[in-house]
Amino acid sequence: MTIKREARRVAKPVVLIAEELSPATLEALGPDFDVVNCDGADRGQLLAALAKGVDAVLIRSATKMDSEAIGVAKGLKVIARAGVGLDNVDIPVATAAGIMVVNAPTSNIVSAAELAISLLLASARFISPANAALRNGKWARSKFTGTELYEKTLGIVGFGRIGQLVASRMQAFGMNVIAYDPYLQPARAAQLSVKLVDLDELLKTSDFITIHLPKTKETANLIGVEALKKVKPAVRIVNAARGGVLDEAALFDAIKEGRVAGAGLDVFATEPCTDSPLFALDQVVATPHLGASTEEAQERAGIAVAVSVRKALAGELVPDAVNVKGGVIHEDIRPSLPLVEKMSEIATELLGELPVNIDVSVKGEISVHEASILATSALKGALKAVGAEEVTYVNAPGLATERGMVSAVTNTAECHEYRSMITLRATTGTGKAMSIDGTLMGIKQTQKIVGIDSFHLDLPPTDNILFIRYIDRPGIVGIVGQTLGEAKVNIAAMQVARSAAGGTALMVLTVDSQVSEDIVAKVKKDTEAEFVRSVFLVD
Fold first, then answer.
1. Same domain? 373 vs 413
2. What span, in angstroms and rounded, lies between the C-alpha atoms of 15 and 95?
3. Are 76 and 99 in contact (CB under 8 A)?
4. Helical H runs in 386-516?
5. The sheet that has 464-471: what strands, in order across it?
6. Catalytic annotation present for 218
7. Predicted TM-score (pTM) of this structure
8. In terms of C-beta distances under 8 Å and separation of at least 24 residues, what long-range contacts does 11-17 make, across chains too?
9. Are 211 and 224 contained in the same domain?
10. Which residues make Cβ contacts (< 8 Å) with residue 62, sequence separation at least 6?
11. Is 528 left (phi over 0), alpha (psi -120 to 50) or beta?
12. 148-175 as b/e, with b when 16 or more CB fall inside 10 Å?
């Protein structure tokens, strides 16, 4: 028996390029799409192009994807911003319409890290005031005596991707690097030869401090009056992250009073900023928010969103989607998304009907991370198994609600069998239930199904799998092999698990092609199996 799949609509994707993008962006998009162009800054052109029907639109900052534009956009699935900011996109309206919104948050990380380092170096050696003095005809060598970085301590506040790039580069200068990040595992920092410390210790021991945090309620003025009372008088502070994390008024007072030696600033609490008192201080070097202002970052942003568009239109997870239910996806959780999706597909196929409830239990080492996105992954897999049309991470929760489906994730630290494991339990409206265990193995994070109900397995979830549950007795393997051989179905691998000799057994075969319903029926008849299911994992 196989599930009757809902009809699928196949259409060639149309991508609208609303602003000028690099040739590399178009190359990354590839030849599999119909690409059309318009001037997104011209409202009439934009609305007309959207009304004709497009699957995705690529924009920069000049195109306004507001409620009006989204409302006329026939068939729109993805809005992709080739950059970091999304002020020109109405995200709530897009989400309500089931449209994925993506940007390129990592496109500028190298550029941002390099600018932070540039500001640090410039601050240490008075590059800006020395340059200004020389241009004004002053040879003031004695006035601008700086300090070396070698064997100094660099404190990084916020040890995410940019902070880690800064650390690796400054270690090459011979600096001792420490970091403050309440959300990072100490083991990850240790891999980078960086010691995690609390904020107070970082403030007290650092010779240089660089900030790499977003501005939130928790981080606003984090480095403020009280924090600046704890630092060394010789400390130099760099902020190339977000304005408002470093209290500019408190910094000014600390420099004037000799409690801080200098600063490098690229961001400000209010921008544009052209009249800060800090600009009058020789100890301060400042730039006008240039962190992402490189040719490479701009090109990288275009390529990133092109790849995201490809993934989104293929129904895959897009890590840079900003409106996917579940929030920010931790790097340790991300590899589990396709695994859970496949586990849910398998469970749905084996149950023979769409489940109404799917519980996902995250166990072991990865249980310390936020994993609610896995609920969406489970819903998406189940819906795909019944052929629901164009299932994405944006619309899966809505499609599931329409069908009376719910999914939830729980985290459990205890896991005896593996370092990490995920258990998915699916229950149908008729009371049928099935439990599937999965894990990721080795450095390559290889997907494995390691249990179905009480049966222990070691199953890679390949495209075509045949499941047979039957009463254990001699000759069954031979019957199955002969039947598939006669049907020209090649067996790639076979596993047999059983509760006990002569009890219920589960045979799992990975095969090179789909097994037809006729062959499934014959196998079931010849083996007198409880059930036989041919599972095709949908791309």
1. yes
2. 19
3. yes
4. 396-402, 476-486
5. 491-498, 504-511, 464-471, 531-536
6. no
7. 0.59
8. 11/55, 11/75, 13/55, 13/56, 13/313, 14/53, 14/54, 14/55, 14/56, 15/54, 15/55, 15/56, 15/57, 15/58, 15/309, 16/49, 16/50, 16/54, 16/56, 16/57, 16/58, 17/57, 17/58
9. yes
10. 19, 40, 41, 88
11. left
12. ebeebbbbbbbbbebbbbbbebbeebeb
Q: Is the dihedral of CA 33, 39, 41, 45 positive or negative?
A: negative
C-alpha distances in angstroms, 260 versus 206, 250, 273, 489? 12, 10, 22, 74
Selecting among 151, 271, 296, 417, the annotated active-site residue is 271
Residue type, 66: D
**Given the residues 242, 310, 425, 469, the one annotated as active site:** 242
- What's 328-361 look like in SS3? CCCCCCCCHHHHHHHHHHHHHHHHCCCEEEEEEE
53: left (phi over 0), alpha (psi -120 to 50) or beta: left
List strands edge to edge, sheet with 176-180. Answer: 195-196, 176-180, 153-157, 208-211, 236-239, 262-265, 284-286
pLDDT at 442: 87
Residue with tokens 């609208």: 16
Tokens 């196929």 label which residue? Answer: 349
Cα(380)–Cα(315) distance, rounded to whole angstroms?
9
Q: pLDDT digits over 52-72, tens only?
A: 999 999 998 789 999 999 999
* Positions of the chain with pLDDT lower than 50, given as ranges: 1-2, 4-9
Nearest-5° Cα angle at 456, 451 to 462:
55
Per-residue pLDDT of 448-473, as tens digits, reads: 999 999 899 999 998 899 999 999 99
* Same-domain pairing of 362 and 410: yes
Which one of 289, 334, 369, 403 is the catalytic residue?
A: 289
Give yes or no: 242 in active site. yes
178 vs 200: CA distance, rounded Å: 12
456 is catalytic: no
Q: Pairing relation of β-strands 504-511 and 464-471? A: antiparallel
Give the C-alpha distances (Å, rounded to integers) separating 334 from 9, 161, 440: 29, 16, 11
**Residues 52 and 86 placed together within one structural domain of the fold:** yes
- We report the CATH number of the domain holding residue 130 as 3.40.50.720
- Do residues 28 and 307 make contact, with C-beta atoms less than 8 angstroms apart? yes
Judge residue 497's burial from the number of C-beta atoms within 10 Å of its C-beta, 0-12 exposed, 13-18 middle, 19 or more buried: buried
| Residue range of the domain that includes 509 | 462-539
Residues 65 and 120 in one domain: no
Q: Number of structural domains, the chain?
A: 4
| CA dist 258 → 204, 227, 234 (Å) | 16, 15, 8
